[in-house]
Amino acid sequence: MRIFQVFSVLVLALLTWFVFKDKDGFQYIFGDFSNVWNELFSDWIQYLILFAVVLMMVLNWGVEALKWKRVTKSLQKLSLGESFKSVMAGLAVGFFIPNRVGEYAGKSLMLEKKFFWKASVLAFFTSFAQLFCTAFWGLLSLIFFSSVITSYLPINIHAISIALFILVIILLLLVYLRLEIITRLFRRFKKIEKQLEVLHELKMTDKFYVLGMSFLRFFIFSFQYIILLTLLGISLPLIDAFLIIALLYVLLMIVPTIALTELPARSTLLLMLLVSWYDLKGMSQPDALELRIIIASTLIWLINIAGPAVFGAFYIPGFSIFKRKES
């Protein structure tokens, strides 16, 4: 764990140095802070839009709660409220764990203790569905932008990106739809196989339901980002903006982070993508672009991750794993 955290910080430091190596440090980043902040909160309309973004957070995690409620019905029937609390607890547990994998265990705490490991398997299943959506849109964005980049390179990046998209998406989809096959790999480990058998309880309708809701979630949190960027004066064509955000989430999926380093990683990677986009389009960048991105990324991180994680921490002590004995 500690090695991973050190590695994630080093990766983040390298990315930050690459972006800001020719800049004038903090004065460059924060020189226009008051001006940008005043733009963001100049009148009541901006406050209303920001409030709408917060409501989208509730919708975002509400959709995740519906997914969790659907897949756990074979173990224990949860109300939507209980399912939502599970999701919040997962965020709290995963906050300090690399790439938030602790969410698997955190979401399982709402169920009875005897279902803990099976629920963790189901939590991995729902996360895999979300990973598929991220990979789908991220690789699709790579195809979109590679068509422009190819003319500057000696090799056909566009053709490679199309082949990569087809290969990865087909492979991930096949794995997702037949994830229960992995139980065969653990036939010699009966205790593990017994927990994995819960995957056989999932019907094909459940799998497509979870996948559809995962796509819906991706649209919600992507448009949250687009709205905040637009509010901060970074206006891009809608399709371009969506695909840039999709590419950002793919990179965040690859780059090792914990929740605390994810915030600067978001800002740094998004800055790299937007600077590249402006260069490719031959357009001038908005003033204080770095600061605008930092504010947008910070607000998204606070609204979608840090805030819900703090909220979810209040539910952890009262969950069944702490107060019930296995029957």
Textual characterization of the structure:
This protein is mainly α. It has one domain. The chain is built from 14 helices and no strands. Helix 7 (116-149) packs antiparallel against helix 8 and helix 12 packs antiparallel against helix 13. The longest helix is centred in the middle third of the chain and has 34 residues, at 116-149. The chain is globular, with a radius of gyration of 21 Å.
Task: List the main descriptive attributes of the protein structure presented here.
mainly alpha; disordered C terminus; 14 helices; 327 residues
Task: Tell me the layout of helices and strands.
Layout: H1 2-20, H2 25-30, H3 33-40, H4 44-71, H5 80-94, H6 103-108, H7 116-149, H8 157-177, H9 190-196, H10 204-231, H11 238-254, H12 259-281, H13 289-313, H14 320-323
Helix pairs in contact: 1-12, 4-5, 4-10, 5-13, 7-8, 7-10, 7-11, 10-11, 10-13, 11-12, 12-13
